[in-house]
Amino acid sequence: MTETVLEIKNLQVAYHTDHGEVQAVRGISYQVKKGETVALVGESGCGKSASVKPIMGEKEANQIIKSGEINFTYQTENGPQTVNLLKISPKIMQNRIKGKEIAMVFQDPMTSLDPTMKINKQIAEAVKASHPEMNKDQINERVLNLIETVGIQNMKVVQNQYPHQLSGGMRQRIVIAIALAGNPSLLICDEPTTGLDVTIQAKILNLIKDIQKSRKLSVIFITHNLGVVANIATYVNVMYAGKIVETGTSQDIFYEPRHPYTWGLLESVPDINEKVDELPTIAGTIPDLTQPIVGDAFAPRNKYALNIDFQKQPPMFKINDHHYAATWLLDKRAPKVPIPAVLQKRILKMKGVS
Ligand SMILES: Nc1ncnc2c1ncn2[C@@H]1O[C@H](COP(=O)(O)OP(=O)(O)OP(=O)(O)O)[C@@H](O)[C@H]1O
User: Fold this and answer.
1) Per-residue pLDDT tens for 37-52?
2) Checking DSSP bridges between strand 20-33 and strand 4-17, what pairing results, if any?
3) 15 DSSP β-pair partners
4) Measured in angstroms, how far is the CA atom of residue 14 from the centroid of ligand 1?
5) Which residue intervals define the domain ABC transporter in the entry (predicted)?
């Protein structure tokens, strides 16, 4: 059986604000096993980042963890150990977990890099922090090895440059090298390719996929664009208004999507075979998370909403052992609503049927 690296149980995160408490994450549960990539996908503001910050022990002054567990399993000299990351001391988080067992890659590489420090020094600092026992030569060797791992050819030149002398894609490679310095078992990627042009984006995605495979890394990949994770995610968790509304394998989500919100996200992914002037977006906006939500949070934007959607939160209906969706359309009394025609057409094309 593949070992579970991370298990999130009923995590609820809120923020104090002058306008009330924002219920950013309203009870989510999922697991990440060794060597798997789990994608968290949803529009801006649906709670993706708020749900992963506690994994890294990041605590804004106004953050409130309302409930939940984040159980993380890692290897120690005495064998595997499981800790609840919400309960460990900041010291253990800093000295043992953050940057060592769990590392993060953010959207904007410039926020993670020091503009005043040469690349080799920045990577060396990260190596030193996680391997204090290494001497200078060992550190230098490891730095070169990391630069090579992230696919940089002219490493002798790059290591003596400053971040501003590199392209966006190169900078993101360096950030990935720094993230790998501690040899983590879990890598969290928060929109790592947003802002890069399409060809560079594809290269960075391939790099993450290669590293993930060769190191048997577990990855949590956050994105607002479902298209980005089609080829890299083992499982996809679609999030809306702080909840997971559909979860399944990539196959389930891309070939058999069942939640109207997932349909909307898929419709807004560009189809490279079709030329369209404007991509459809999902009409409306996400709800005000300071106000109580009655029923399905997506109902006001859902053209397939039933009366019950405005009254009662749908449970997670089981479609198969790994595919679940929270929509009343899956209740046996609901009218049969087919997948929108445009998606149906795309799916048939992907399956090679038309
Ligand atoms: N520090 C904070 N204080 C108050 N509200 C916050 C804070 N951080 C996030 N929020 C709110 O929590 C909700 C979830 O935000 P979060 O950043 O997790 O969304 P997201 O899905 O990651 O979006 P994005 O893709 O834009 O990062 C939003 O309503 C956001 O405004």
Assistant:
1) 999 999 999 999 999 9
2) antiparallel
3) 22, 63
4) 10
5) 6-266
The reply to whether 102-183 shares the fold of 1-75+190-354 is: yes
Give me ligand 1 centre to Cα 7, in Å.
22
Q: For the chain, which residues make up each domain, given as ranges? A: 1-75+190-354, 102-183
Q: Is residue 243 helix, strand or coil?
A: strand
Q: Which of 16, 18, 49, 285 to mutate to test the pocket of ligand 1 (most atoms within 8 A of CB)?
A: 49
Question: In sequence order, what are the beta bridge partners of 9?
Answer: 69
Domain 1-75+190-354 falls under CATH 1.10.940.10: no
Q: Dig out the tokens for 217 from the structure.
A: 């890394």
Nearest CA to ligand 1 atom 8: 50
Residues flanking ligand 1, CB < 6 Å:
15, 17, 22, 24, 42, 44-50, 60, 62, 224, 289
Is domain 102-183 classified as CATH 2.40.50.140?
Answer: no
**Phi-psi label, residue 125: left if phi above 0, alpha if psi -120 to 50, beta otherwise:** alpha
CA dist 24 and 126 (Å) reads 32
- Which residue has better confidence, 142 or 196? 142
Residue 192 has pLDDT above 70, yes or no: yes
Rounded to the nearest whole angstrom, what is the distance from the C-alpha of residue 111 to the centroid of ligand 1?
Answer: 18
